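Is this the right way to post structure tokens for a design question? Let me know if I should format differently. Anyway, here goes:
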């Protein structure tokens, strides 16, 4: 973006009113729109291709309405369902003058000439020509992205790679481009795969040595299962921020719970699946939010989130962002909270009270065939904050929680810990 930025800045500084067109319906396009407006451009058009709307930015209709209002407020011309057919350049200078566009959603497509001095393409995050040429010249397979196997190896077994540049083989139909997964998780899985090769303690075979057996094993191995939430964060017009955090495998059935300020400067939507797990968080507002913290809550059951569902239905939550900034959430944001969850789940497997509850819920699901009814029964038998659990189960959960808070007392010092064991931790 350095060269387009300097070119637009130069045109504005010389008194020329450049006609800028931004093409694409990605979240990155929102940031580019904001950047161009910040340079003082008054003639700005947003060209959106076939499909229309802002669906590739957000699936939330309310977010689309708020974005449309921001665009109108900034006098951005929206060209819906337009496809660029050709570029019109000056025969004398070779400079771009306009775009020959085709209206895509009409029975009789019509051609339109859109004045344009600067065209910014933000549709797809593809590798540039030099990167593609380097990949192709090395004999590596490129199929929309650089193809890797389940161990993150390219067709050259000595080259490992991962991230938005890569994809898994088409043999694995359920695997998406890696750009749709968490970059952090891609890096962790790539490092773990490489460690199996270079660490003599962990390595039982050397998949990178090019032998036929290792290559055959790598082909049969399924890609890893991604679980970390994918984060999209863009700066928008008028100082607004757009944040979308979702799990890589989104369930079909979702329950949406939203909060919105009266002036429309803060909107947040949480979507839970039938089991009560938070699958997606969407935010659009004028206030910057703690994205790293919010990423921690996506993928957790609502019971870990201070009984988010029952709290919302009891009108105890007026703003989700404020709710997640309360002191109770600090324990959830700690980097050892996942370890605490694993230990607690392992302990609950051998608890008689939990075993009886699980069996009861399974019978309900088998008899009715309705997951929602079974989960409603589970919530009733558990109670808010575990209040309906048998005393021995509550005692075991409390002891595990106290151990977790005590072990990280240097950071989680906002909680009051009783001196005698057996008392629940209280918040200040």
């Amino acid at each position: 973006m350095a060269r387009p930025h300097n070119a637009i800045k130069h045109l504005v500084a010389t008194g020329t009113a450049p006609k800028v067109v931004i093409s694409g319906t990605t979240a990155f396009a929102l940031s580019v729109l904001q950047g161009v407006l910040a340079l003082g451009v008054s003639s700005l058009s947003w060209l959106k291709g076939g499909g229309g709307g802002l669906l590739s930015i957000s699936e939330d209709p309310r977010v689309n309405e708020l974005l449309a209002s921001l665009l109108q407020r900034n006098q951005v011309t929206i060209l819906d369902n337009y496809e660029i057919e050709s570029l019109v350049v000056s025969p004398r200078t070779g400079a771009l003058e306009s775009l020959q566009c085709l209206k895509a959603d009409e029975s009789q497509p019509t051609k339109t000439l859109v004045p344009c001095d600067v065209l910014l393409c933000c549709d797809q995050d593809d590798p540039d020509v030099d990167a593609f040429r380097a990949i192709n010249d090395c004999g590596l397979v490129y199929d929309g992205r650089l193809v890797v196997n389940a161990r993150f190896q390219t067709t050259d077994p000595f080259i490992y790679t991962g991230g938005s540049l890569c994809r898994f083989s088409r043999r694995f139909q359920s695997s998406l481009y890696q750009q749709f997964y968490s970059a952090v998780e891609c890096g962790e899985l790539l490092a773990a795969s490489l460690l199996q090769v270079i660490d003599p303690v962990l390595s039982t075979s050397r998949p990178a040595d090019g032998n036929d057996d290792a290559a055959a094993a790598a082909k049969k191995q399924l890609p890893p299962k991604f679980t970390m939430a994918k984060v999209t964060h863009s700066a928008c017009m008028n100082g607004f921020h757009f944040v979308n955090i979702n799990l890589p495998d989104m369930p079909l059935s979702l329950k949406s719970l939203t909060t919105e300020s009266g002036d429309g400067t803060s909107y947040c939507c949480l979507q839970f699946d039938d089991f009560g797990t938070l699958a997606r968080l969407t935010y659009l507002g004028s206030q910057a939010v703690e994205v790293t913290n919010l990423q921690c809550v996506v993928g957790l059951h609502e019971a870990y989130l201070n009984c988010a569902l029952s709290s919302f239905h009891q009108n105890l939550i007026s703003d989700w962002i404020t709710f997640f900034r309360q002191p109770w959430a600090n324990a959830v944001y700690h980097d050892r909270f996942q370890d605490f969850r694993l230990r607690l789940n392992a302990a609950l497997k051998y608890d008689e009270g939990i075993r009886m509850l699980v069996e009861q819920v399974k019978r309900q699901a088998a008899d009715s065939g309705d997951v929602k009814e079974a989960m409603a029964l589970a919530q009733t038998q558990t109670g808010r904050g575990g209040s309906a659990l048998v005393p021995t189960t509550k005692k075991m959960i409390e002891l595990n929680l106290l151990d977790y808070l005590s072990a990280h007392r240097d950071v989680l010092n906002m909680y009051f810990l009783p001196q005698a064991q057996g008392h629940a931790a209280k918040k200040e």
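Format looks fine. Someone answered above. Worth noting: The longest strand covers residues 82-89. The radius of gyration is 26 Å.
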